[in-house]
Amino acid sequence: MNAMVKAEGVHKSFGAAHILRGIDLEVAPREVFCLVGPSGSGKSTFLRCINHLEKINAGRLSVDGRLVGYRQKGDKLYELKDSEVAAQRRDIGMVFQRFNLFPHMTAIANVMEAPMQVKGETKAVARARAERLLDRVGLADKAGNYPSQLSGGQQQRVAIARALAMEPKLMLFDEPTSALDPELVGEVLDVMRGLAEEGMTMIVVTHEMGFAREVGDSLVFMDGGVVVESGNPRDVLTDPQHERTKAFLSKVL
Ligand code: ADP
Ligand code: MG
């Protein structure tokens, strides 16, 4: 079976700053893949490369068996056209630390927007799905609320529903609970746990080691733009092999 995400020797620089220094990893379909590491280690940059928000400088990166942003003919790579990039991006949902909801739209309008704009769906079809999704994240009764009338945890759950509205085959979570008050973290993790149980393939950048241990299928520890250690989350968290992993975990556990 194809990996859902495969990175082989992925490098990314910003000017002289060499941030990703040869990332190798594989995410299997239906896997919950947790990515942890100190601030500045390149976790967000890696997610952004998967989602076409940044272009890699070297290596190969593919999603569901297709190169991200390129087509290969023989041994030559050709950049995809904008429309082809857009088609690839449609299959990937991303949830950020800051919820980034459209402030002037209600919760349900936020969830309906992309399917209508990007896929040309009718309002009725988009609304029916948005109602289902808001119900699934426990917010059926908040459909008419504007973001400013929702708590951080509720806004983040709307953001998850909004990403799911495009029916992605891969979900990327970039520290989805880091901006939340502690008492609101659980409700967002519960929604993510439900998604995992339904078989969604997810890459989750998080400092929530309890979530990684209970829900994660694999855990990768990244530092300085490389994968330092990876394995079953329970193993890595209980018995880290590398000094850098030990030092990091002693701070977050
Ligand atoms: P993490 O998510 O692990 O905290 P990031 O991927 O956000 O790390 O950032 C890794 C490094 O890349 C940081 O030093 C950051 O300043 C740098 N960086 C990220 N994006 C850019 C950019 N667009 N231009 C220049 N430097 C960047
Ligand atoms: Mg980050």
UniProtKB/TrEMBL annotation:
Enzyme's top EC category: translocase
SUPFAM superfamilies: P-loop containing nucleoside triphosphate hydrolases (SSF52540)
Catalytic reaction equation(s): a polar amino acid(out) + ATP + H2O = a polar amino acid(in) + ADP + phosphate + H(+)
The EC number(s) this enzyme carries: 7.4.2.1
GO MF terms held by the record: ATP binding; ATP hydrolysis activity; ATPase-coupled polar amino acid-transporter activity
Taxonomy, superkingdom: Bacteria
InterPro entries documented for this protein: AAA+_ATPase, ABC_ATPase_HisP-typ, ABC_transporter-like_ATP-bd, ABC_transporter-like_CS, MetN_ABC_transporter-like, P-loop_NTPase
Entry keywords, A to Z: ATP-binding, Nucleotide-binding, Transport
Domain ABC transporter: 5-249
Keyword Lyase among UniProt keywords: no
Transmembrane segments: none
PANTHER family noted in UniProt: AMINO ACID IMPORT ATP-BINDING PROTEIN, PHOSPHONATES IMPORT ATP-BINDING PROTEIN PHNC
Similarity comment: family membership: Belongs to the ABC transporter superfamily.
Protein's recorded name: ABC-type polar-amino-acid transporter
